[in-house]
Amino acid sequence: MIRHLTLTAATETRQKRFRQIRALVLLGAALLFPQRQPFAQQPNLAQPEPASSKPPAPNPPPTQPSTTPPAVATPPRTKASTTPREHAWQILEDACTGDKTGDRATAILVLGLIPNDQTSTRLAEKALTDEKPEVRAAAAAALGNMNSRKSIAKLKATMDDEDPAVVLAAAHSLDLMHDNSAFEVYYEVLNGQRKAGKGLIGAQKSLLHDPKKMAELGFQEGIGFIPFAGIGWGAVKAIAKDDASPVRAAAARVLARDPDPATTKALAEATGDKSWIVQVAALEALAKRGDSSALPAVEKYMSDEKSAIKFTAAAAVIHLSAIKEAKAKEAKTKAANQKKQPATLDHKQP
What we know:
Low-confidence stretches: 29-55, 65-79, 219-233
């Protein structure tokens, strides 16, 4: 009996210890390997939200039209909105870089009416390397007319051009600026050879005995360039058909130096002459006079159909506008200086 009780107590003790060990093992497993939550407990993003118990909101009232006017886009700036001077530059720059040789030559030539201007000098110097000789000749003539002494070195280099017209134009401009290197070309024309060696003109002696070729080179009363809207045979033929126009055009050019203010009005009227040669000469004379009161008369010819008139008018507008702006600035400065000066008080002598 006693033995049986002892065995029972031992068995219970082992079972109790086994349960303790088992509890420890389960506790450790729970700590080391926590179980994932059941899938049903994960938030289901795909499921729609439950319908709200709140009543739907009433439809909003119709939107009232805004009293503020919609913004209007600013239209791009056109030529019509630019100043006459800006429009004139656009006309000349387009022609100077255009495909038409005649337009390029004429536009480059009238740059000579715009002295002391970096843009006109730059365009003319660039044209000295143009592929067409008539354009190069016009560029050389323009640089002399604008008295661009900074371009003398480039004009000297141009005297080695393969085209005689270009060489003569460069020599003419150098002579206008009193550079003695021009004499080399004139010596060659006279003797068929330059002092320093054989020149390009002397190598083409036939040119010097061909009246038409001489006219194409622009000879008139010795070595000079036909002053009527360009260099070339076209201008010579136009002059030959009308004996009166060259004389009246020459008179207009001389009147550029007339100090009488009434002459400005006469030249302005001549811009509407029936002969385009006289028109161009009158526009050129107005530019050289430097009387900015002629601007209204000149501006309207920037839209002329004939390129020679259009380009000469554009050059005149640029030059006269610059003179007008300079005078206005000078007057403003003078008025400001007078305002700063203290008033002088007259003190009576004791």
